[in-house]
């Protein structure tokens, strides 16, 4: 492990804005703030928005600055990346955001029907491994225990196959689709979308990739993947790129 990473890990242990619950402890006992993050940590009753796979926390921090009347929590398993996010909110004096280092599979040990919306921003599309996607039925069903009534999922991705896969699951399960575009920067939805671009998104746009956005309500259990969905032969291509 590099020296810089070790320094970041030591710093992480000193940040009150970063929670690093050990997996074995969560498996044995729920997090102490489960069900009361708004009051117990943020000291208010404001809605909580969760970002999964937040990386360096650029989106979490950006949303927190844009919407001071809401609380934001970024989750990632990479402590070295989270170090940048914590420092960013500390330097900016942001009080309505924090970060958690944990596996997404353990979210139900950390939250209890208290999240208003979950953002999934530019996740790994896991081509050929649909069951590992953060918008697969297995993960969506986990989120049911995390989201409050009327809770929703918002996916932002440069990968058309992931967008198309997720939209298919939402449609097949009768979920209400709120926002939907396979080309955000040429869509009216852009005006209503937070003007935040992470380092990855800027790179994708410079490469000419279309950015897809899909928001839908999650209010029921999702049917498991069928065999064809589990083993996609190849990644779907954005229609505009096939001409």
Walkthrough of the structure:
The protein is of the alpha/beta class. The chain has one domain (38-241): 3-Layer(aba) Sandwich (Rossmann fold). It has 9 helices and 8 strands. It has helices spanning 3-12, 23-28, 37-42, 58-66, 79-92, 137-143, 160-172, 199-206, 227-230; strands at 18-19, 48-52, 71-76, 97-101, 115-121, 147-157, 177-181, 212-217. The protein has an 8-stranded mixed sheet, with helices on both faces. Strand 5 (115-121), helix 6 and strand 6 (147-157) form a beta-alpha-beta unit. Helix 1 (3-12) packs across helix 5.
Question: Care to give the gist of this entry?
Answer:
The protein has 243 residues and is an alpha/beta fold. It is 32% helix and 19% strand. 35% of the residues are buried.
Helix content: 25-40%
Biggest sheet details: 8 strands, mixed
The named CATH superfamily: Vaccinia Virus protein VP39
Beta-strand content estimate: 15-25%
Q: Which CATH class?
A: Alpha Beta
In CATH terms, what is the fold-level topology? Rossmann fold
Number of helices, where a helix is a run of at least 4 consecutive DSSP H or I residues: 9
- Helix-strand category: alpha/beta
Q: Uncertain spans, ≥5 residues at pLDDT below 50?
A: 229-233
How do the strands of the widest beta sheet line up side by side? Answer: 1-4-3-2-5-6-8-7
